[in-house]
Amino acid sequence: MNEQTCVIFAAGEYYDDPIDVPDGAFVIAADGGLDHTHTLGVRADVVIGDFDSLHGARPADADRTITLPSEKDDPDLLSAMKVGWSRGCRTFHIYGALGGRIDHTISSIQLTALLAHHGGIGFLHGDGTIVTAIRDGALSFAAHDAAPGRMVSVFAHTDVARGVNEPGLKYELVDGTLTSDMVQGVSNEFRADVPAEINVHDGTLIVTFPAEAPMPRVTRYHGFGGDLGALDTDVSPLLVAGDHGM
C-alpha cells in the first residue's frame, strides 16, 4: 500500500535521537512542537493547537494555522493526527510524545492503538526507543546487528490478543494469548543477524523496540474501516456552565 507519511512534532520531551523527516512527508507542529521545528530548521505544513505550551511567538501564517480552544475534548496530538489522516496519511512518526508527564505518555500510546484500530500505524520516538501498536497484522524486522540488552517488549492493548507469534526473537512465543493484565511479553530481545516478526491475528498489541533497529515492514491481515473522526474545534460540552456546579 502506498501511503503518505506524516511527521508530527509534539510539545513533550526531546532527546538526542536523530530526527528523520522523509522526503515528501506531511509535517505538522502540534502546539509547542512548533518551538522544536524552529530549532531543527523544519518547516511545518500545518501548525495546530491551543498554544498553551508554545514558548515562542504564535504562528502568523493563518493559511496553515489551526487554532483550537484550550478547554476541548481532543488533545492537540489527536487533532494533529486527524489533520494528517484527512490528508491521506496512514503512517505517522511522532516526536515529543514520550517522557515528561506520564499521563501524556499514556495518552500518546493510546493514540497509536487508535490508529491501528483503523488500519494506520504510529511510531512514537523518544530516548532511544520506539513505541507502536499493531492490530490484526504483523511487524517484520530485517536482520541486523542487534546489540544485547536492548529490549523488545510486547503487551496486549485489547482485553485479549490471540494468535501472537514472535519468531526470531530470543523468546519465540508461538500462537500465544496475551491479556491486558499480563506482562509476559516484557524484556525480549532481537537476535543478531536474525530476521524477526511480531504478529497478532486477533487483537491489538503495543510494541516497544530499540530506535536503532530497522523500521519494520507492516502487514495487515484484512481491510480496516472508519477514520479518526472530524476535527473538533469546539469547547468541550462536558464543561459545566457558570460556576461548575459549586
The CATH superfamily of the largest domain is known as Thiamin pyrophosphokinase, catalytic domain
Q: What proportion of the residues form beta strands (DSSP E)?
A: 25-35%
Mean pLDDT: 93
Rounded to the nearest angstrom, the radius of gyration is: 19 Å
Biggest sheet character: 13 strands, mixed
Structural class: alpha/beta
Could you name the ranges where pLDDT drops below 50 across 5 or more consecutive residues?
none
CATH architecture annotation of the largest domain: 3-Layer(aba) Sandwich
Shape call = globular
Instruction: Please tally the β strands and state the result.
Output: 13
Number of helices: 3
The first-to-last residue Cα distance is 54 Å
Helix percent reads: 10-25%
CATH topology of the largest domain: Rossmann fold
Tally of individual domains: 2
CATH C-level class of the largest domain = Alpha Beta
| Topology pattern, helix = H, strand = E | EEHEEHEHEEEEEEEE
3D architecture notes:
With 246 residues, the protein is α/β, with parallel strands linked by helices. It folds into two domains: 1-127, 3-Layer(aba) Sandwich (Rossmann fold), CATH 3.40.50; 134-220, 3-Layer(aba) Sandwich (Rossmann fold). It contains three helices and 13 strands. It starts with a strand and ends in a 26-residue tail after the last strand.
